[in-house]
Write a structure and sequence with these properties.
Layout (H helix, E strand, L loop, with lengths): L5 H9 L8 E9 L1 H9 L3 E6 L19 E5 L5 E6 L3 E6 L6 E7 L6 E7 H21 L1
Parallel strand pairs: 1-2
Antiparallel strand pairs: 2-5, 3-4, 4-5, 6-7
Amino acid sequence: MAGCSIGDMMTEVFEPFRNLGYTVWGDNAFVSVEMLKKCKEWKINFAGTTRTTYGFPNSLINENLEGGQWRWLMSDEGLLAAYWADVGFVKMMSNFHTPETGQVYRRQTGMADKMTRDAPVMGVDYNEYMGGTDLADYIRSL
């Protein structure tokens, strides 16, 4: 696989799951408009954090948003991009979500209870399903 692009590598990884209806979550090294379109064509739900260099619309970026606020755009092909003010600013894209609002729970400094914060449902789902991957990456790094 030396010399191949991330898109080529991801295509090879996704090939066995083609047309099986799986949902796959990725971090910002893998979620591009190119892969979202390919996965949608192959009936694979794909979503996660992303980078502006992977096709995320720069027009959504607004660092004046306050915690829980978010902006979104949806393409004619059904690709959703969202810029969300969470603990930091988060860029996300999905080929199967719609721009609905959900809630996440965040710790507050000096408080025993967690506060609720509005979030795109895509962000709620990402937090739920990527937590295991993030924990495994952390443990592996130790």
